[in-house]
Amino acid sequence: MASTLAEKIIAAHVGRDVKPGEIVVTDVDVTALQDGTGPLAIEQLEELDLVRAQNPANTVLFIDHAAPSPRKELSNAHISLREFAAKTGAVLSEINEGVCHQRLVESFASPGDIVIGADSHTCTSGALAAFATGMGSTDVGIGIATGKTWLKVPETLRVEITGEFKPGVYAKDLILHLIGMIGADGATYMALEFGGSGADAMTMSERFTLANMAVEAGGKTGLFASDETTQAFLEEQGRGESYRELAPDDGAEYARTIEIDASLLEPTVSAPHTVDNTLKAADAVGVKVQQVFIGTCTNGRIEDLRVAADILRGHKRNPETRLIVTPASRSVYLQAAREGLLEVFVEAGALVTGPGCGACVGVHGGVLGDGEVCLATQNRNFQGRMGNVEGLIYLGSPATAAATAIAGHIVDPRVEFLT
Amino acid sequence: MILKGKAWKFGDSISTDQIAPGRYFHLRTNLPELTKHVLEDANKDFASNMQPGDFVVAGRNFGLGSSREHAPRIIKIAGVNAVLAQSFARIFFRNSINVGLPVLEIDTSGIEEGDELEVDLEAGTVRNVTRDKTLIFEPLPPVMVKILGDGGLVEHFKKYGDFHLET
Predict the structure, then answer these.
(1) Under an 8 A CB cutoff, do B91 and A48 touch?
(2) Cβ separation of B67 and A23 shorter than 8 Å?
(3) Can you tell me the ipTM of this complex?
(4) Percent of chain A with pLDDT over 90
(5) Fewest CB atoms within 10 Å of the CB: A237, A356, B18, B66?
């Protein structure tokens, strides 16, 4: 039977062909909790007297959403994660290590894996050809204890990408464009599968950005085939042995196929308060911005920081626009330091924070004031997302963010800074 | 069993950030306190004025966003009988079943704020007493009927000690 990537990965786990709509109980390879969802998962396992990890080396507890802790309740939540790790032998990712999804792709997820994480952006690891999906605390807790979960085999929406980005246009613009086109529920219950010559030509960093936002279209995961780019990435992480080549079969059946010519795209932003509320950055020019935030699991990688630094080098932020830069992980932070990027940001007037989820989740480190506008490289602009229901969030690429920080209002980064 | 209560009407795209706001992140380990803020960013009067047994009635893509299971949990703890929506986001839908909160896909366009509803989960019907209309909701997948019938995934595991989802 010709299979999509999602069907192929699930079939390999259950030992038979599967078709969309089927319910399977399957082994899982990697499980993850974070400090917002972990304590509840642990509570459920305590209630079931199941405080254990079936596969401790691939069970990871991330302290990233409120790291370091801004208040005692969260410090106590962190203690519960540390104690669970100590009891079960699970891996603890401490406050200095960074955002769970970046850490998962660096050190844990591999092609062909089934990854479940109690965080909606777990789909990021799909870029490594892993069936990676977000679930709630109870589902992931039980996955940790038993090594299993149940899944409905999803239909697949194929995104066929051709062409290359024009200068100043990035993967973030593509995914915002796609979500604007199909809507925030355009892929509900489906796997997104990115392919075509444009996808093949993408770096891993670009693939992670696309896969990360699959859930913003309602998708269960966002998959890429694995290839030499995947292999080179895993080798860089010291995990070359975990590489496997995986691709969908010719003739696989897709619920829908969407074609995108990357060369036709322009810098795109999402306006408040939904991700699918997209427009060209050029059409948002002039919107005054009080805070620019560059970071997150969507766009906090070294490649993103390089793009932002190239624009900010030799410039100062607008005096009325704060700039926060948060590398996604310890490894990104260290690399940015080595390349002198942190210095560029600080010189430009940015606050560079330690790695973590930072301002994106509205817990600490960049909460908006009433009526304030933020242009962020994160994946969500829901009302209240950055800690204040009166805040207004626009989403854009690191280039759009950096250029906006200099101008003080939203700009098309190509106009002033990339010509 | 017939569930009876009043409708609280919400719009499209109600996110988990509006149901369980991030600024109360520190209350995630104190669900009774977090429940006092349920749906606060969508309707600030809901938590203080809703009565146990009432229904949350919404438009498209209810519960989109974060995987925080606290969102359906606090809706349930508040005493909401069921959430009725045109459609649901995937993770929220699954979490609701896992915590024992009925979530029903149904055309909610004819239901208004304050309408008296009677939901029959077995028969698959919603009767709008105020408007004298009966609607049929999309049946849940059998696997979810099973988990919901057991009272959620933890109760399912207490009962069977494993996934027991053959239907």
Answers:
(1) no
(2) no
(3) 0.96
(4) 99
(5) A237
